[in-house]
């Protein structure tokens, strides 16, 4: 007879199967992300119309009018829907981020009080932060959102109390420096099935009405969009450990100047061109901008916008353009307009933004960004900021 040791072969097979499963999981997450991002884009346009016309209607009513409270409820529901869309966008990695250089330790320290109120007195919070400043380029509100989502999950996993711990470390991978944030609890833990699905949107083990299943998928999207990675290890009855890897930056934050309000009467009046392919939103924007005293033209595409400028001899001082449109994109239109008009300013609006697009916008001193859906006050604020330049 023959005896053959197949231990190595089995190890190789197991490794191949593991890699294949990870690949399929990655493909599935990417497909769900694209779907979520596409839905969010169309939904944000509709939300903008609901919020915009709701605010316009509210201005025409007196406080004692019975319809006033009804419209307030509509606006409140729209805001809740907006939060849901933001979570979908974060998962799909299409959420517009207001990135800045952050000291990770400072962000965590400042969040500690809120976390204590959030998770209750029967859970002890421990911080084990590296004894030096470590900086990342990220959106502070979204880093806080990641930690808050994890704290909520840990609280639910420790109904009788326990320990919630956040630590920071240096980490190096292939000559690249990372900040490692570890978030740990000694709660009920998870079995293998739950562990394999935790980052999928709408997957939840909570009772109906107690969770949307978007908390950890949002965390996943935020960290991935920042160029980082997130891992989780857990066993039933032995707690849970999340590891968050964020690219480190050697730059240090700049000192922020004092904020100051601007009088609406001081706004520089001029000609505004609105370019938006969603008909209802285009008309709404025209109403909003015309109410500020601007001469306003509207177009449904970049090509139509250029045609209006040529035919009507219209000289725009400001252009408000959607980012994603059939044919020419908002960025392509911006570049063509800059060639024609040296002093033009352009506001790009979008509910679905690729990281590369945001980076391109940030590099152009004449282009500004406004995330959909926005209120009339947010649009006015953006126009006022530009009028100061």
Descriptive report:
This protein has helices spanning 7-59, 66-92, 104-119, 140-157, 192-195, 215-225, 279-290, 302-311, 330-340, 355-363, 376-387, and strands at residues 100-103, 123-128, 135-138, 162-173, 176-185, 229-234, 240-247, 271-275, 295-299, 318-322, 345-350, 367-371. With 389 residues, it is an alpha/beta fold. The strands form 3 sheets. The protein has a 5-stranded mixed beta sheet with strand order 2-4-5-7-6. Helix 3 (104-119) runs parallel beside helix 4 (140-157) and helix 4 packs antiparallel against helix 6 (215-225). It is globular and about 90 Å long. It starts with 6 loop residues before the first helix and ends with a helix.
Layout of strands and helices, then pairs:
Elements (H helix, E strand, L loop, with lengths): L6 H53 L6 H27 L7 E4 H16 L3 E6 L6 E4 L1 H18 L4 E12 L2 E10 L6 H4 L19 H11 L3 E6 L5 E8 L23 E5 L3 H12 L4 E5 L2 H10 L6 E5 L7 H11 L4 E6 L4 H9 L3 E5 L4 H12 L2
Parallel strand pairs: 2-4, 8-9, 8-10, 10-11, 11-12
Antiparallel strand pairs: 1-3, 4-5, 5-7, 6-7
Helix pairs in contact: 1-2, 2-6, 3-4, 4-6
């Amino acid at each position: 007879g023959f005896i053959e040791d197949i231990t190595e072969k089995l190890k190789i097979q197991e490794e191949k199967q593991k890699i294949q499963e990870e690949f399929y999981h990655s493909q599935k997450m990417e497909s769900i992300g694209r779907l979520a991002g596409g839905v969010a884009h169309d939904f944000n346009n509709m939300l903008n119309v609901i919020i915009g016309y709701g605010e316009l209607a509210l201005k025409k009513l007196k406080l004692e009018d019975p319809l006033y409270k009804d419209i307030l409820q509509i606006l409140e529901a729209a805001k809740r829907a907006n939060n849901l869309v933001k979570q979908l966008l974060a998962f799909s990695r299409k959420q517009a981020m207001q990135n800045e250089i952050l000291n990770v330790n400072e962000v965590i320290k400042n969040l500690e009080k809120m976390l204590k109120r959030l998770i209750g007195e029967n859970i002890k919070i421990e911080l084990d932060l590296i004894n030096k400043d470590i900086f990342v380029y990220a959106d502070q509100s979204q880093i806080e959102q990641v930690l808050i989502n994890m704290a909520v999950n840990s609280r639910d996993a420790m109904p009788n109390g326990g320990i919630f711990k956040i630590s920071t470390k240096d980490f190096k991978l292939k000559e690249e420096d990372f900040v490692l944030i570890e978030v740990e609890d000694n709660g009920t833990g998870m079995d293998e099935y739950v562990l394999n699905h935790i980052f999928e949107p709408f997957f939840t083990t909570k009772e109906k009405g107690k969770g949307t299943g978007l908390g950890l998928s949002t965390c996943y999207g935020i960290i991935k969009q920042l160029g980082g990675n997130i891992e989780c290890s857990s066993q039933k009855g032995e707690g849970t450990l999340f590891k968050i890897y964020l690219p480190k930056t050697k730059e240090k934050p700049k000192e922020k100047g004092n904020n100051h309000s601007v009088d609406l009467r001081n706004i520089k009046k001029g000609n505004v061109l609105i370019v938006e392919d969603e008909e209802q939103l285009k008309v709404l924007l025209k109403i909003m901008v015309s109410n500020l005293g601007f001469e306003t033209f509207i177009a449904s595409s970049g090509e139509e916008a250029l045609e209006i400028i040529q035919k009507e001899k219209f000289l725009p001082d400001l252009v408000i353009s959607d980012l994603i449109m059939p044919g020419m994109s908002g960025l392509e239109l911006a570049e063509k307009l800059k060639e024609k008009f040296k002093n033009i300013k352009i506001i790009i609006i979008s509910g679905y933004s690729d990281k590369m697009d945001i980076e391109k916008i940030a590099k152009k001193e004449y282009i500004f960004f406004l995330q959909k859906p926005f209120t009339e006050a947010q649009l006015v604020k953006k126009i006022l900021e530009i009028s100061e330049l």
